[in-house]
Amino acid sequence: MNLPHKILLAQIPTPLNEMNFDGKNFLIKRDDLTGCELSGNKVRKLEYILADAKRKKADIIFTCGGDQSNHARATTIAAKTIGINTKLFLWGKENSNINGNLFLNKMYGAEIKYLNKEQYDKVNEIMFDERLSLLKKKKNAYVLPEGGSTTLGIWGYINFIDELKKQINLKSIDSIVAASGSGGTAAGMLVGAALNKLDIKVVAVNVLYNKEELTKKILQLAEGCILDYKLNCKINPENLVILDGYSKEGYKNITQSKIKLIKKFAAETGLLLDPAYTGKAFTAYYEKFLNTGKGKKNIFVHTGGLFGVFSRTKEYLV
Ligand SMILES: Cc1ncc(COP(=O)(O)O)c(C=O)c1O
After folding, report:
1. How many angstroms separate the alpha carbon of residue 65 from the centre of ligand 1?
2. Where is the domain boundary, 148, 163, 187?
3. Residues 167 and 310 reside in one and the same domain
4. 175 catalytic, yes or no?
5. In what helix (H) or strand (E) does residue 221 lie, and over which residues does it extend?
6. pLDDT tens per residue across span 150-199
7. Number of domains within the chain
8. The domain spanning residue 100 has which CATH number?
9. Do 28 and 90 reside in the same domain of the chain?
10. Which long-range contacts (CB under 8 A, 24 or more apart) does 234-240 make?
């Protein structure tokens, strides 16, 4: 098996903690602690992706996401540390409210192109077209799809399972629960669990794509990775559970009832959850697992995203 190389970016292993919320104990894997500026789940993927970009002698990295994309911010900062600039193709529009991840992207010098939703639906084509124009000028752009979710990037979450296995007997665990956007985090965990012959459920709380689309994305990434790297394992699609209905307000919004839970959680545990991903995923985890007394059999993964809070200060202060 030809395993991919990585550069070191993430502060790992991240802690697996037992905490108490609302009078009940539960397990939380602190992937918000993979770093500070370079924080959250994206850093694990970027370790592999940037090693590849370096090997391919990229002059610039193109990537995409919402205007408060954590992935775009982590890519910009990480790429900067190895001397590569980024161009970001962001769903949103230029406005005077430059805060959170967008602020950091600007501060670290990313070039930004804003796209409306219709244009963003074709973002991969747009990035590849620009890559072609740059090639004519002998400049090599490395195109990284949304969320860093490629069959290479998901190695970050294949190895996450090995890391977790050293922290707890995963045979005693029913599921691992995390927010799911582009699907790479869940796909990596599925492959990692299959390689370790673990019959554990990966519960993905969809915040961006609908259940059908996300299921397809995750399974394609997982199967694609098995094929690309000739891995000796098989995915059981039943081990993927999409916990649907927790982002009905839309990816860029969050309901006041979720903010209320986020604030109660912050007050009791000291931990902060973000509006786009972990606030929604934790609401799902709370209702389905924690509140029903299953918090110690099902691990919640805090995937980070905290800079997003600063784009929502008004809602958080209500
Ligand atoms: C904080 C946070 N959590 C979860 C996710 C979802 O990860 P994935 O895109 O791998 O599904 C993201 C991705 O953007 C994120 O920024």
Report:
1. 11
2. 148
3. yes
4. no
5. helix 211-228
6. 999 999 999 999 999 999 999 999 999 999 999 999 999 999 999 999 99
7. 2
8. 3.40.50.1100
9. no
10. 234/194, 235/190, 235/191, 235/194, 236/194, 236/199, 239/190, 239/193, 239/199, 239/200, 239/201, 239/202, 240/186, 240/190, 240/201, 240/202, 240/204, 240/215
Asked whether 48 and 160 are in contact (CB, 8 A), the reply is no
**Ligand 1 mean position to 291 CA, how many Å?**
24
Residue 141 lies in a domain: yes
Please answer whether residues 300 and 203 qualify as being in contact, where contact means their C-beta atoms are separated by less than 8 angstroms.
no
Q: What is the pTM of this model?
A: 0.97
Domain assignment present for residue 232? The answer is: yes
Whether residues 120 and 31 fall in one domain: no
| Ligand 1 atom nearest to CA at 207 | 6
Q: Using one digit for the tens of pLDDT, what is the confidence trace for 29-75?
A: 999 999 999 999 999 999 999 999 999 999 999 999 999 999 999 99
Nearest-angstrom CA–CA distance, 130 and 315: 37
34 lies in the same domain as 47: no
Query: Is 131:167 a contact under the CB 8 Å cutoff?
Result: no
> Hey, which of 31, 71, 189 would you mutate to test ligand 1's pocket, going by the most ligand atoms within 8 Å of its Cβ?
71
Domain that holds residue 50: 43-148
Would you say how long the chain is, in residues?
A: 318
